[in-house]
User: Fold this.
Amino acid sequence: MIRRFGAPVLRGQSYSLRAGAYAVLLLGNRVLLTHQNAPQPEFQLPGGGIDAGESALRALRREVFEETGWGIAAPRRIGAFRRFAYMPEYDRWAEKLCTIYLARPTRRLGLPSEPGHRAVWMGAAEAAEALANEGDRHFLLRALAAR
Assistant:
């Protein structure tokens, strides 16, 4: 069974499945996060939804670039979690199936192309505190403990 983080399932609410790929990006004792301005300002692991016909790794590379402007290398799956949430940008309720990868940031290729996102480097402890999502925090801490 895949662990669930976040708000409980709302009785009577139907959810559509939304698979996504997200990255823990470590460089020394620093972590590359994305800061999203809307619908509410928050720090997140870079990543996002897997589009139809797209592989998880292709989506991961695309989303990391769109949200941070960075390229990545050597992605390795470290786990997955579920969360149930309203997605205002799509006006739908989703069961988000979040697959988490550990990857190495390679170099900055440009500015984030996704509106409202910016790349932020933080110390590992600060990043764990800043993450808005319990599942993201869990996998960041797990990756840090495994080093």
Summary: The first helix runs from residue 56 to 68. The helical segments are 56-68, 124-130, 134-145. The two ends are 26 Å apart (CA to CA). The chain is about 20% helix and 45% strand.
